[in-house]
Amino acid sequence: MAMRVLVGCKRVIDYAVKIRINPTKSGVVRKGVKHSMNPFDEIALEEAVRLKEKKVASEIIAVSCGTQQSQETLRTALAMGADRAVLVKYGTEDEPDMGPLAVANVLAKLAVQENVDLIILGKQAIDDDCNQTGQMVASLLGWPQATFASELTVDGPKLAITREVDGGLESIKVTLPAVVTADLRLNEPRYATLPNIMKAKKKPLTTLDPGSLGVDIADLTSRQEVLSVEDPPVREAGSKVANVDELISKLKEAGVV
Fold it and tell me: What's the whole-model pTM score?
């Protein structure tokens, strides 16, 4: 069976950037800061491309929910091997991102509209670390889910998944259509080559708004309110001790022993 695969590609502040809190302490500075594709989403996309190389997948659709600048992320996805891309445009650089529940509703609507067989997402985004969207999409669609996947094998109408859990590894099978979220050790994403970057410019990229999919963002806003964003406290300098007795004495003073 040749599957149609939908992959979520979130635009986030690059992992190598030193984060700065904005003057109002309502969030972090995003303007003029380098952004890139969420690393876990890169892994999800790489897995989809590998499925297509094995002739298991017939088409890969990359999706991003965000500002116009998210087109850059989708062009990267196209250069890595996605066939076409969809930008669900929302917000500005000064506004918070679309929340996990809103994104899940958008992806669920697109999955039905595009008649996909498999949704692969990163297990979480490195900016908010919510780890919610994949599970929410599966629930909205009523599809089986396999989260934290470190290995994926197609077995007829089913997927054999190895999951990373607290106690080690867990092996499960899910029936397609399904939702999979990618963990760090699923694969190592490829770099987009210059020829593929040039080809990506000619691949189709469609822009939609949430309303055209029947998604009302106002009804799906976060139930949480950010009161303040603060820098972590600066760690106090340590001190050297001359011997074990002095160490024990200081530990007693601190109430540790």
Answer: 0.86
Residues 75-99 have pLDDT tens digits of 999 999 999 999 999 877 767 678 8
**CATH number assigned to the domain comprising residue 140:** 3.40.50.620
The rounded distance, in Å, linking the Cα atoms of 234 and 237 is 9
The DSSP-derived string for 194-209 is HHHHHHHTTS-EEEE-
Angle at 52 between CA 113 and CA 213, to 5 degrees: 15
State the residue range of the domain holding 213: 3-253
* Contact call for residues 148 and 163 (beta carbons, < 8 A): yes
Comparing C-alpha atoms, which of 80, 87, 4, 10 is closest to residue 45? Answer: 80
Rounded to whole angstroms, how far apart are CA atoms 228 and 231? Answer: 10
One DSSP character per residue, 60-81 reads: EEEEEEE-TTHHHHHHHHHHHT
- Give the Cβ contact number of residue 15 at 10 Å: 11
CB 26 within 8 A of CB 94: no
For residue range 135-167, what is the model confidence (pLDDT) as tens digits?
A: 999 999 999 999 999 999 998 899 999 998 888
Query: From edge to edge, which strands make up the β-sheet containing 205-208?
Result: 168-175, 158-165, 145-155, 178-182, 118-122, 3-8, 57-66, 84-89, 205-208
Residue keyed to tokens 């992806």: 107
If one counts the domains in the chain, the total is 1
Among 161, 167, 102, 162, residue whose Cα is nearest residue 128? 102
